[in-house]
Amino acid sequence: MTRTFFTIVIPTLNEEKRLPTLLSDLEKQTFNDFSVIVVDAMSSDATIRLARQHHAKVVISNKKNVSYQRNLGAKHSQSEWTVFMDADNRIPKDYLQKIKEYVEIYSPDILSSWIVPDSRLKKDKITATLMNIFMEINKNASRPYILESMIFIKTKIFQTLGGFNTDIPWGEGEDMLGRAHKMGFKFEMLRDPKYTYSFRRLKKIGTFKMLQKISQIEIIKMVKGDLTKNDAHFFYPMNGGTFYKNGEEPKMTLQKFISILFQDKEISSKSLKSFKKNIDPWKSLFR
């Protein structure tokens, strides 16, 4: 593979509807010193064929694990910068040009940018604004919050960090940035340029229910530290584009939540009764 300034890694699973649009956006970039690697987890639709039609390098992953797929793609990167994008992103034609200009002037080690929603609905615009503000105020935290849908990182630093942790099912970007922070690497969150972030999961699940899920996850993280892979399926099923065709949302009852929360922990019936009483005001978090 020819050495380019950016290597863009896109993990896919049945993304025949979304991937071609992103690849078309990439073909229209004013800055074109980049290569594209699509890491596909054995899609059953036309994803692979369409990726090749757009002259992307296709790498087949034998695991349906987005972190594993990103790491696999990064192994093929010969660029100074490796970029991780989601297949349902959209980017303006000067997006890569502006990022290149920024990194040459300010020399960050890792960066991402603010988002705009793929919708004109007022509630989606408000949600995107809140997400941007949250990312902005957390960018200097010990574990900065980041959307894994868009991450620019120097390839050597990605290798030094050991890539994404494939054993955690949620917050893998935050986890990697936490390790980067400990090692003193510089992270930036740009307000401009912005990319279009897909709200299709919010549309599929519903904004309120998605916020319920996030609240449930944060409670479990406070108690247990991290979710297991099996637990995560109840919160955030990762079936690629297939989820939006026929995916069914797993039901999270209060009883199931308690089971996950205290899994492998000895707890007395008295303590369990006390917990249920204290969580009573938050029953709206569960269906």
Automatic annotation (TrEMBL):
Pfam families: Glycos_transf_2
Keyword Membrane (UniProt): yes
Keyword field contains Glycosyltransferase: yes
Record keywords: Cell membrane, Glycosyltransferase, Membrane, Transferase
Record's protein name: Glycosyltransferase 2-like domain-containing protein
GO terms of molecular function: glycosyltransferase activity
Compartments (UniProt record): Cell membrane
Domain Glycosyltransferase 2-like positions: 7-128
One GO cellular component term: plasma membrane
